[in-house]
Each structure stands twice: as structure tokens, then as C-alpha cells.
Amino acid sequence: MREFIIVGRNAPTAPEFALDDLPGAGRLDLLARCVTASLLVSHGIRDDVRTHLVLGDAFTVRFDGDSLQGLNPDERSTAALIRTALERRDEAIGHVPVETSPGVSLVRMGLETTLDSLTGESTVSRLHEDGTPIAEVRPPEKAAFVLSDHTDLCPEDAAVVKGHTGLTVSLGPRPLHADHAIAVAHNWLDTSGFDAY
Amino acid sequence: MREFIIVGRNAPTAPEFALDDLPGAGRLDLLARCVTASLLVSHGIRDDVRTHLVLGDAFTVRFDGDSLQGLNPDERSTAALIRTALERRDEAIGHVPVETSPGVSLVRMGLETTLDSLTGESTVSRLHEDGTPIAEVRPPEKAAFVLSDHTDLCPEDAAVVKGHTGLTVSLGPRPLHADHAIAVAHNWLDTSGFDAY
Known about the structure:
Two copies of one chain form a homodimer. The first copy, chain A, is α/β, with parallel strands linked by helices. Chain A has a single domain (1-197), classed as Alpha/beta knot. Chain A is 26% helix and 26% strand. Chain A has helices at 28-39, 75-86, 111-116, 155-162, 178-190, and strands at 2-8, 40-41, 44-45, 49-55, 59-64, 98-101, 104-107, 123-133, 143-148, 168-170. The first copy, chain A, has an eight-stranded mixed sheet. In chain A, strands 2-3 form a two-stranded antiparallel ribbon. In chain A, a hairpin with a 2-residue loop joins strand 2 and strand 3. Chain A starts with a strand and ends in a 7-residue tail after the last helix.
């Protein structure tokens, strides 16, 4: 099991955004690419992945690889899945998720509640360029990674993450876009720490 | 210097395509992501990268990191840069490139001529899951990677690539989308072979 928690602080929490301007919709272009980077391989879905997109610390859209259908690699159609989820925001009551398309669900949870909801078995780490070199870390059996969007985590979110894990890992000397960081993190796990090809 | 040669066999060679349907335009969504994966880091451009997008074996759009301007991370605006380049296809005569926006040029070259045009100093390798594990390869000072789009290279293109390099490297046990493969290849070079963080 692998989990990705992607913090979109400026992401929309309502469906009124234009698919023609995803960068202008709280960088939904980047968040959509994070979803596809986490869940898709060439001609297939990673069925052992669950991705949590935390939108504006108010809602989380969850993508479950083992039941996911209709996820295509492009930004626009992925953003449309997110919009479809947000169209049902009024049905998301308490912390009960609403399945809005196969394998996609919306839940009224911010970052803290989303982190609380992770299965306790996963090794949670934050991906950040100031962390421990990932090549020095032993790949866990169940990994959960927390990433932020194009901005660094705000102090409040950083404190919430710190409350859930003291582990920060770095993927390299250059700060990467979140979707590329996900691709590298997957590769690290796929190869058991850049070892098994 | 790093170069990426991305073979888009079904990519458009004329500007008449819709930005609203990039997957339907010869998978221009994927090709656009390859461009951004090769050239962008968080809040910056990789100025040591040149990316060659080979469209339908007829035209190549070249992105030069050291002079590139106006490249944003999203698919749609990147595809618009490619469309702008193709709008000037009639001006691309012989093998003389036409600069169509800062750092972006169009040249009437297919795969073979594009590979011929590489500076002879680069170590050219094909990225493919059947290759030598990349962790066993020493990162070259100047690397050029050849990748195909969502399909494997056709036999003709594979033969052309084979005529330019005998080196095929694998990034891991799972076949990746081309843009994710680029992110991993960059990380391998950034970290001097998963060594320097």
C-alpha cells in the first residue's frame, strides 16, 4: 500500500472553476498531474495506491487505485473528475465519504483529519528538499508521503504534519514539482531503493 | 548538457488541433508533459536542457532551456506553444530552424535527422524497460535520452535509434509514462546516480 497526501492550500473547494484555466483554479493543473503521477503507470493503474487531495483544508478528494475507473492521464479530464466530486459537496456530511465516480470519493476533511484517517500501519514521511536523502532510507512496506503544491506548506500545515511524523526525506538537490517528486518516490519504491530493476 | 528526444509518432504536424482535446490530438497532453518534465523544476527552468519533440517524423519542435521563456507547467499552454510553432511550418525550409517563441524553434526534421543533429559529445541512450538497470550505469557528463510516446517505438524508428546508439537503459520494473520517466532520469543525473543529495 502506498498513499500520497497532496496539500492544495489554494485549491478550489467548490465546482465553479473553468477547465480551460486550471492554473488559475488554485493550480489544479498541478494537482491533477499529482493524481495521475501517483496512480497511473503506462497502460495501467497502480491498484495499491490511495491518493488524498486536500483542497483548501476543507475537503479531501480520495482516489482509490483498487476500484478506480475513468482516470485518464491528461489534466483536463482529471480536473473534471475533481469537479464532479465537488459538485456533490453538500452530500459530504460529517466525515462520511461520498463516492462521486468509481474509486473517487469526496469527504469533508482537512489536512489534520485526513492524516488522522490514514491506516496506522504506514510509514508517513514528508517529501522536502531539506530532508534525509531518500537513498539512505530503507523503503518501508507501506509508505505514505505528504507533499505540498507549488508553495511550501504553510506554518499551520507544517505543524500538523510534524504532529504525525518526524520523518522528512529529500529526493535530491533540486526542488522538484510535486508530480515529478511523486514519480521519483514511486521509482524508489518500485526498485526497492534503486536496487531491484 | 542534457537532451531529450521524444518521438510522437501520431502527433499533429499542423496547427489545426483543439486545445480542449489534447489526448485526441495525437496525445499532445503527454508530449506537453514531457516538455515540462524535461525543462522545469520548482520555480525555475533547467537551463542546461534541450528537448526535441519529433512530431509525426516530419517536424521537430526544439525547446532550449538556456533561452526559453513563457513555458508554464500546464499542458494547455505548453500545447499552445507547440501550436504556435506549427503555425509557422511553411517558414521551416530545409533544415533551418525557425524560432517561433523565445527558446522554441521549429525545424523540418524527422527522427533520423534530429538524432544526426545532436552534438556528438552526448552519450545517447534509449529509455526502455528492457534495458540495463540505470543504477548500474555511470551517469555521463552529457546525456541524451530517446523516449517514445504512449506507444513503443515502431520498427522503423527503433532501427533508426539503434543506428545511433546501442545503449538502452531501464528505470525500473514497471513501464512508466514518458513524462514520469523523464522525471526519474533527471533525478538520476541530479543525484549523480542516486548518490549525491
